[in-house]
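Because showing beats explaining, we let one protein speak, sequence and backbone structure tokens together, and leave readers to judge.
___
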Amino acid sequence: MTIRHLRIFVAVAETGKMSAAAELLYLSQPTISQTIRELENHYGTQLFERYSQKLFITESGRRLLEYARQILHDFDRLEENMLTYDGKTPLRVGSTVSASGIIMPHLLRELENRMPQTDTFITIGNTSHIIQKLLHAQTDVGIVQGDIQSSELIAIPAVTDEMVIVCSTKHPLAQQKTVTPKQIEQHPFCLRETGSSTRTMFERFVQKYRLIPKIKWEATCPDTVRRAVLQNNCLAIMPLRQVAAYDCRGQMHIITGPMPDWDWPHYFVYHKDKQLTPEIKVIQEILENCEWPDYSDTLSCSKLIDNQATF
């Protein structure tokens, strides 16, 4: 059964004659008759009764007519919309929360300058969330931090950031030039949720130094983390550029040093089967060629001492 079968059936039902349907559809009358027989054989029921060379629709025919009209209506709308569709769809970009505040504003501004006709749709989530969207073709490209484990994805290092431990300048650790991991263990942390790159960084840190951390807060929003640091005397792990962007009043103090994977790159990620459009190639070019400032010298800072003998 095809759309053609349904269109012929509706024409016969509405005109009441095979000959009239044939004239309406510019087909031969034998073609119309053959199509109706095919439909009746397909559904195993009689669609029309024939009395004195006149057609009368049966109850089965009325039921089919109700569905056929709706199907043809939807099909015609589909044809009209697809044939008049200009082919333009938003470029879907997935971004981790940290990248959304550090990289995305510059990236979108540059993309708009170079390709002003590009329409974009941005999705913000943690690393695992964006990776799942890429794997299920729900976003076109992603800018994420952390490990990309899937062999289905291509991950290109784009912007390298440094992860740091951060506290308020009023925090006791901010008064020290050097800090040991054991000292850090004694203070409460505000952390991002499981699945975020910063949470993964923290878990590696405590595993390396065999720490038992005091996790007081868990938040999905970096601004909530910042407030917990400034107002609730918590420690946190954040990207250095994010700290610099938030710390416009010099209220935050960073602790930096030899943590595992201290350098934490942002990756430009897409599915290996994804067709790279001109817009996607421009995004990659912007990320590769942008010169990002170094903020480390402008912030209050202590050094983490990797001295496991202190344990």
